[in-house]
């Protein structure tokens, strides 16, 4: 398939590209994922509580937000934030623009996971909490959320691993993350197949490591479940 | 201790309680009996506002609430009243992510703001009282139904309630576990706890109740001391209900 000389060159490119790819993965892809996911979870929790609230306007605002974000492509959202907003005077740097885009996305999708987890907690748990005099907030914090957390870890992990991969979209708004580095190497070496496979392998590595942590958290939370 | 006056509860078109007048004296045990769907559980749940009555007056341990349809209760009134009551549920409803000990400590710490040490002391005493001190560090799923229910009683007692409410506390239990729960309840009754118990355990009603209330179709049909109500029921409906139970070999 490849001549000896070509094979030699490809190996050389792969080994030369490996550290720059890994470095950008660790310095940009991972932080972008962690920051967006953490902020997104806070947003998701607030959105879920707003959707469950008895205050109608809060329901509407939260429902509208989830509707917009889930109904439009993430790529288009990133373009609007990074390329669109400057035309009305809002200019955001690539990295923060990506964080905003991913946070909004994580917030919308995960709010549904959290809402479902809270609603799946048996009604008797609320009643037991109320019967010992707890307020709504105390019941939520001490009784409901801890149980909902356990239920929501697997779907939240799913969403987290999706985010690791989705951060490659940030390349399109000029964030220098792992995939963009692969593109840059391709542009100078004309070896797209091996470089993109190399990037794919690194994404696979990151997701695998993160899945391992998911398993550990689940086992920790499983202590009290029969 | 408890006074109900003309209490009504409607769920949309369903008129579940149709004017309940009831009074419960301090230190007594009142057992509520009646066919399923009679409104007895709803009545019990109205006492700690898990259901909010549609109409009428509820007075409990000095807290008086008037209900009118469409009128919202203040959260502080609800909490204040609930803190005078403890409830034991048919399906226990222990907090599954907490040990038996933590279940009994939780309300003391979160609601009553007791120190952790004080809460633990009290919780251990109560677990001892219900015979489960050795199981303090177990999670609910590691306990039998009867043990879970006894933890449930300890959890309710930990809040120093003026009134303990029991909602069919033995209905979900295997027959051989019923006795241990009834024994704890009888001890509480003998200690002078004010208790309102919805149950199908007629033996317990005879043995521990000061007063038995028979409720059917949302009204109190008849009430009195267990001797009178069981041996000389005045109303035809009470007689029919007791006969049917008799036929079911209670």
TrEMBL record, chain A:
Transmembrane segments: 30-52, 64-85, 193-213
Membrane topology summary: Multi-pass membrane protein
PROSITE patterns per record: ABC_TM1
Main location: membrane
InterPro entries reported in the protein's UniProt record: AA_ABC_transptr_permease_3TM, ArtM/GltK/GlnP/TcyL/YhdX-like, MetI-like, MetI-like_sf
Subcellular location: Cell membrane
Keyword tags: Amino-acid transport, Cell membrane, Membrane, Transmembrane, Transmembrane helix, Transport
Coiled-coil positions: none
Domain ABC transmembrane type-1: 26-214
Family per similarity comment: Belongs to the binding-protein-dependent transport system permease family.
PANTHER family reported for this sequence: L-CYSTINE TRANSPORT SYSTEM PERMEASE PROTEIN TCYL, MEMBRANE COMPONENT OF AMINO ACID ABC TRANSPORTER
Protein name: Amino acid ABC transporter permease
TrEMBL record, chain B:
Residues annotated as domain ABC transporter: 2-242
Keywords per UniProt: ATP-binding, Cell membrane, Membrane, Nucleotide-binding, Transport
Keyword Flavoprotein assigned: no
InterPro entries: AAA+_ATPase (IPR003593), ABC_ATPase_HisP-typ (IPR030679), ABC_transporter-like_ATP-bd (IPR003439), ABC_transporter-like_CS (IPR017871), MetN_ABC_transporter-like (IPR050086), P-loop_NTPase (IPR027417)
A GO molecular-function annotation: ATP binding
Pfam families, per database record: ABC_tran (PF00005)
SMART domains on file: AAA
Matching PANTHER family: AMINO ACID IMPORT ATP-BINDING PROTEIN, L-CYSTINE IMPORT ATP-BINDING PROTEIN TCYN
Protein name: Amino acid ABC transporter ATP-binding protein
Species of the source: Tumebacillus lacus
């Amino acid at each position: 398939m490849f001549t000896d000389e070509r094979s030699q060159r490809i190996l050389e490119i792969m080994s030369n590209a490996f550290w720059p790819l890994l470095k950008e993965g660790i310095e940009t892809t991972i932080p972008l994922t962690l920051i967006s996911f953490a902020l997104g979870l806070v947003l998701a929790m607030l959105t879920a509580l707003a959707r469950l609230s008895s205050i109608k306007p809060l329901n509407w605002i939260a429902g509208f937000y989830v509707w917009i974000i889930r109904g439009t492509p993430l790529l288009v959202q990133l373009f609007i934030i990074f390329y669109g907003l400057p035309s009305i005077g809002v200019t955001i740097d690539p990295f923060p623009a990506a964080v905003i885009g991913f946070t909004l996305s994580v917030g919308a999708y995960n709010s549904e996971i959290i809402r479902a987890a809270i609603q799946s907690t048996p009604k008797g748990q609320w009643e037991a909490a109320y019967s010992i005099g707890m307020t709504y907030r105390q019941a939520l914090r001490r009784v409901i959320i801890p149980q909902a957390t356990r239920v929501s870890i697997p779907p939240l992990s799913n969403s987290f691993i999706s985010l690791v991969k989705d951060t490659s979209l940030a390349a399109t708004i000029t964030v220098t993350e792992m995939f963009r580095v692969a593109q840059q190497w391709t542009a100078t070496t004309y070896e797209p197949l091996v470089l993109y496979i190399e990037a794919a392998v690194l994404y696979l590595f990151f997701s695998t490591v993160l899945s391992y942590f998911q398993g550990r958290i689940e086992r920790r939370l499983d202590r009290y479940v029969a | 201790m408890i006074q109900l006056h003309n209490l009504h509860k409607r769920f949309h078109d369903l008129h579940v309680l149709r004017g309940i007048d009831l009074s419960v004296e301090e230190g007594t045990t009142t057992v509520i009996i009646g066919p399923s769907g009679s409104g007895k559980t709803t009545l019990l749940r109205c006492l700690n506002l898990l259901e909010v009555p549609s109409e009428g007056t509820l007075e409990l341990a000095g807290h008086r609430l008037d209900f009118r349809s469409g009128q919202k209760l203040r959260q502080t009134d609800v909490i204040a009243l609930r803190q005078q009551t403890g409830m034991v549920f048919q399906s226990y409803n222990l907090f599954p992510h907490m040990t038996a000990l933590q279940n009994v400590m939780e309300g003391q710490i979160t609601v009553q703001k007791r120190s952790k040490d004080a809460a633990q002391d009290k919780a251990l005493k109560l677990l001892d009282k219900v015979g489960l001190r050795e199981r303090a560090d177990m999670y609910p799923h590691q306990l039998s139904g009867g043990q879970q229910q006894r933890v449930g009683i300890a959890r309710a007692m930990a809040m120093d309630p003026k009134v303990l409410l029991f909602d069919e506390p033995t209905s979900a239990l295997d027959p051989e576990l019923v006795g241990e729960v009834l024994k704890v309840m009888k001890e509480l009754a003998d200690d002078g706890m004010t208790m309102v118990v919805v149950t199908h355990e007629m033996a317990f009603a005879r043995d521990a109740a000061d007063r038995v209330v028979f409720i059917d179709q949302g009204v109190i049909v008849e009430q009195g001391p267990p001797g009178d109500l069981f041996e000389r029921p005045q109303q035809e409906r009470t007689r029919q209900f007791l006969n049917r139970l008799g036929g079911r070999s209670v």
